[in-house]
Design a protein that fits this description.
The protein has 451 residues and is α/β, with parallel strands linked by helices. The chain is built from 15 helices and 19 strands. It has 3 domains: 236 residues, FAD/NAD(P)-binding domain, CATH 3.50.50.60; 97 residues; 72 residues. Bound molecules: flavin-adenine dinucleotide (FAD) and ligand EGO.
């Protein structure tokens, strides 16, 4: 007879109460572990909105799968998500091109409010009696091998000690936990800032909660050097994000220059943004930097692990940062199940399972940035989206476009790119074949005249 050992209850310290930290706390609590969550900032559920608008994110299959496991998918997606069924591409001349995301299975991405998402996750975590929150506590140092933590209380400025069986770094792109890991021998790390910054603007509702543009779209203004996108909010407004080189932002210091720039680059958006509101939004803010971080491994022995942006910060040009972080939580949970919460087995398995895939999605996001910025002929890009859509519609089981495998499946990212490489080869061969046939026909016509 075999005895089934019941899983031990671990003491887990989660660093960071952002999107990933809050979700991770729910997963650990569900397994009956005791969770202490330390967050640098004030509890966002009690602070007033700093800026008078909402910032949103694109949520898709990977993020949804994780939310499903803790019972939050429906409330977040069905009640508080706005489906974006197609991209709407805005030309310089105001021409609109709509290309559906998934004409076959009707999948779509959802625009969700970051703050609402974070609050909902914190509320869900707090419902577990085995979860405790500590806000305004900054992790300043840690002994990751022995589970010892030092935290700074930002109110009293006093230092406190804590200990845990497992330290989970969910503390974002500038992770303190990762910085401590980096001091270990043989640790791999790379970080890249891109030359573009981003700034968030707002298109207010038209009249009473009416959308000023088509509601169920991700709106994209691809301009090469500059890119702008808009995602819908539940109140009828849009959050607009402008991506441009810091150099460009610096050149837009006066009202005249700013208006000239927008009228030239995004003429159809100017009346929607409103000239006064645009100028206020623009000059009240400064462009923010974008960073990409890759590292390996994600764990220390059986006592520490990083996940979310702490493990893989990426540029936002695929809309997958949060989705990937949420999928981390789900995958780590599966491994805890598989190894009965034995961390000596679980943590190395997590690095093994996730590290390379994380590097692949970081690269894909960077590749999208380069492609959207540098492609001289953006028409060919739109053509490729159309071609992919048609081929997918014709061969739904064999031709899944890269965007779809990334957003609408849970296929490992390495498999998504392998698929893409194969499709690229087929398209190249198709072009050769087509040229050969055309050439043969032409040759036939010329030859016919001789006889
Ligand atoms: P964070 O959200 O950064 O949270 C980290 C938390 O840790 C913070 O609350 C911080 O206060 C806390 N912390 C930091 N240091 C310490 C410390 N020393 N001690 C205690 N606490 C600490 N992703 C998508 O999936 N879809 C999108 O459409 C999308 N759009 C994006 C657009 C932009 C412009 C950007 C910049 C990102 C976008 N992302 C998107 C990515 C997404 O925002 C991140 O992947 C996600 O927020 C990562 O969550 P996180 O919890 O790992 O990190
Ligand atoms: C024309 C059409 C040119 C994030 C499509 C280029 C990314 C790339 C930042 C979009 C969608 C969620 C996003 C598509 C392309 C979020 C996304 C895409 C942006 C920018 C974004 C698409 C937030 C490149 N998904 N995407 O295919 O619709 O393709 F444009 Cl700047």
């Amino acid at each position: 007879m075999t005895t089934v050992e019941s899983a031990p209850s671990l003491k887990i310290a989660v660093i960071g109460g952002g999107l990933v930290g809050a979700l991770a706390a729910c997963f650990f609590a569900k397994r009956n572990h005791s969770v202490h969550l330390y967050e640098y900032r004030e509890d966002i559920r009690v602070v007033e909105e700093v800026r008078g608008r909402s910032i949103n994110l694109a949520l898709s299959a990977r993020g949804r799968a994780a939310l499903r496991e803790i019972g939050l998918e429906d409330v977040l997606v069905k009640e508080h998500g706005i489906p974006m069924r197609a991209r709407m591409i805005h030309g310089k001349d105001g021409k609109l091109t709509e290309i559906p995301y998934d004409p076959v299975n009707k999948n779509c991405i959802y625009s969700v409010n970051r703050r609402y998402l974070n609050e909902t996750l914190l509320n869900a975590a707090e419902k577990y009696p085995n979860v405790k929150f500590f806000f305004n506590k900054k992790l300043v140092s840690a002994d990751l091998d022995n589970g010892e933590l030092t935290l700074l209380d930002r109110k009293t400025m006093g230092e406190e000690q804590a200990s845990a069986d497992l330290i989970v770094g969910a503390d974002g792109a500038f992770s303190a936990v990762r910085r401590i890991m980096m001091k270990k021998p043989l640790y791999n790390f790379s970080q890249t800032y891109i030359e573009h910054g981003y700034m968030e603007l707002c298109i207010p509702p038209k009249g009473e909660g009416k959308f000023a543009m088509a509601k169920n779209n991700l709106h994209i203004w691809p301009r090469g050097e500059f890119m702008m996108i808009a995602l819908p909010n539940q109140d009828g407004s849009y959050t607009v994000t402008l991506f441009a080189p810091f150099k460009t932002f610096e050149g837009l210091r006066t009202r005249e220059k700013l208006l000239l720039f927008f009228r030239e680059q995004f003429p159809d958006a100017v009346p929607l943004l409103g000239e006064d509101r645009l100028m206020k939004d623009f000059f009240d803010n400064s462009p923010l930097p974008l960073v990409s971080v890759k590292c390996r491994p994600f764990h220390v022995k059986n006592s520490a692990v990083i996940m979310g942006d702490a493990a893989h910060a990426m540029v936002p040009f695929y809309g997958q940062g949060m989705n990937t972080g949420f999928e981390d939580c789900l995958l780590l949970d599966r491994l805890l199940e598989k190894y009965n919460s034995d961390l000596t087995m679980t943590l190395p398995a997590f690095t093994e399972l996730r590290c390379t895939d994380a590097h692949v999605i970081c690269d894909l996001a960077m590749y999208n940035y380069v492609e959207m910025r540098d492609l001289v002929n953006r028409k060919s890009f739109i053509f490729r989206k159309h071609l992919d859509t048609i081929l997918y519609w014709l061969f739904p089981n064999t031709w899944v476009p890269l965007y779809n495998s990334v957003h609408f499946s849970r296929m490992p990212f390495q498999k998504c790119t392998a698929n893409r490489a194969w499709q690229e080869k087929v398209i190249r061969r198709g072009i050769y074949l087509l040229s050969a046939v055309l050439f043969a026909i032409l040759f036939g016509i010329i030859n016919r005249k001789r006889f």
